[in-house]
Amino acid sequence: MTPSAALDRIGRYDPRLAALVRVFDPPLGHGSGPVFAVKDLFDVAGVPTGGGARVPLAEDPAAHAVVVQKLLDAGWRAVGKTQTVELAYGGWGTNRAVGAPWNPWDAKVHRAPGGSSSGSAAAVAAGFCDAALGSDTGGSVRIPAATCGVVGLKPGRGLVSLLGVHPLAPSLDTVGALARDVATAARMLDVISGPDGADATRGPFDAEAALAGEVEDRRLAAIPLDHLGEVDADVGRLYLAALDKLRRAGIVVQMVRPPKALDESFAPNGLLMAGEGWRIWRQRIETHGAVMDPWIVRRFEVGRDISDDRLAEAHAQREADQREFHAWLSTYDGLVTPTCPIPAPPMDAVDETVSPLSRLTRAANYLDLPGISVPCGLTAEGLPAGLQILGRPRDEAGVVALGAAFEKVSGWNGRAPDMAGFA
After folding, report:
1. Are 71 and 188 in contact, with CB atoms under 8 Å apart?
2. Whole-angstrom Cα distance, residue 170 to residue 157?
3. Cα dihedral: 279, 282, 284, 288 (round 10)
4. Is 116 labeled as catalytic in the residue annotation?
5. CATH code for the domain in which residue 405 is found
6. Which one-letter DSSP state was computed for residue 168?
């Protein structure tokens, strides 16, 4: 799309959708490449980094985040910064500090957009940009992708720079891409990947090679519904239908039970988030807690009681769990599940004491696996559901190839929400 078309749609629909916190008019950059948006956790030079908070995380960043700079250097154009859950710590997409975007699939009921990259997913679904940057610590790219009906691509660690991206849990954080289709998400990953002289040591990622990858006879492990815990009936139906479509694409799908249920990663991933997050943001919470989302404060305060020794034990257990799971997964080309076990609920029905949307996504961060969420259909209420494909360690190319293959047979065909109700 052109930047002018993007800005026109933003002006028409975003006053009510509220996906963006800042519009760049004129857009940033001087090329003729795709149009993108930036999660407001990433630094853009000279623009406050809000981080979903009333008090900005950075008032006047001196430089762009590395990934933003790479996109601009490649000719991409930035049209704005998108909403996020405060400090990226939440899966529903709620934000009691500065407000939360609507899910574009329902103009009558304010539904959860998914978090924490809530505005990025809503902006892509609404047609405000070709792609958007997001961060993913426990599902924060894939969850909103699933609930908003777009593609969310999360690489493994070390492929994409985190420089200029404000952290939640450094051992789990990744930067990913949201887009309407797998190819665009893969091409964004291509541009932002590669060594940065710091923690990013891999890459670059070759999108075109991955998109051209053959998938016939590749083997996918699929977790049976009765081993996935509580799953919404419509989501379960769409998941089983998606498995049949994968088989028709020539992929071998085997129903299996991993050595540990995926949701066994939920609690230890949460412990690492709270423990690391408290150590990073303690001073901010003690200073500005009164104007923060109270649920975000409570989540961070859990980390106050996690000792250094307990945190070290959790890291050691994570390494052992990764070795076990990676050995099991090595006999398959990937693992498939629903992305989220439920569709987007109304905001007034959200229970902040639980996090069902991340129950099946946190494992990818805890076990350091690349993953993608691809739309797999609509529920009876007309709400999107996502199919999650997790790959073997460092096999982003396999994840993209499998996601693209499913996209071709999914029947989704670029479906988008009717935005008339937001005009």
Report:
1. yes
2. 10
3. 150
4. yes
5. 3.90.1300.10
6. S
Contact predicate 374/188, CB 8 Å: no
Q: Residue 333: what pLDDT?
A: 98
What distance in Å separates the CA atoms of residue 80 and residue 123, rounded to the nearest whole number?
Answer: 10
Rounded to a whole number of angstroms, the distance between the first and last alpha carbons of the chain is 20
Please tell me the distance from the alpha carbon of residue 88 to that of residue 51, in angstroms, as a whole number: 7
Q: Is the peptide bond before 268 cis (omega within 30 degrees of 0)?
A: no
Residue tagged active-site, from 116, 135, 171, 355: 116
Give me the sign of the Cα torsion angle 300, 305, 309, 314: negative
Question: Does the annotation count 108 as an active-site position?
Answer: no
Helices assigned H by DSSP within 118-169: 118-125, 142-148
Residue in 118, 135, 140, 193 annotated catalytic = 140
Catalytic entry in 39, 81, 154, 245:
39
Instruction: Give the structural domain span for 334.
Output: 3-416
Residues 378, 381, 386: CA angle, nearest 5 degrees: 30
Q: Is residue 421 part of a domain?
A: no
- Strands (DSSP E) found in 302-423: 334-338, 371-378, 384-390
Instruction: State how many domains the chain has.
Output: 1
pLDDT digits (tens, 9 = 90+) for 320-353: 999 999 999 999 999 999 999 999 999 999 999 9
Tokens of 382: 């007309």
| Annotated catalytic residue 135 | no
CB 235, CB 379: distance < 8 Å = yes
CA–CA gap between residue 55 and residue 301 (Å, rounded): 19
**Position 422 in a domain:** no
Reported as a single tens digit per residue, the pLDDT across 288-312 is 999 999 999 999 999 999 999 999 9
Q: Say if 354 falls within a structural domain.
A: yes
Round to whole Å and give the CA distance between 166 and 321.
27
H-helix or E-strand spanning residue 254: strand 252-255
Give yes or no for residue 260 having a pLDDT over 90. Answer: no
Supply the DSSP string of 298-310, one letter for each residue.
HHHHHGGG--HHH
Please give the structure tokens belonging to residue 75: 């000719």
Query: Per-residue confidence at 26, pLDDT binned at 50, 70, 90?
Result: very high
Q: Tell me what percent of the residues of the chain surpass a pLDDT of 90.
A: 98
Cβ–Cβ under 8 Å, residues 17 and 131: no
Residue 278 resides in a domain? yes
Asked whether the beta carbons of 185 and 179 are under 8 A apart, the reply is: yes
Helix axes 396-409, 182-192, angle to 10 degrees: 160
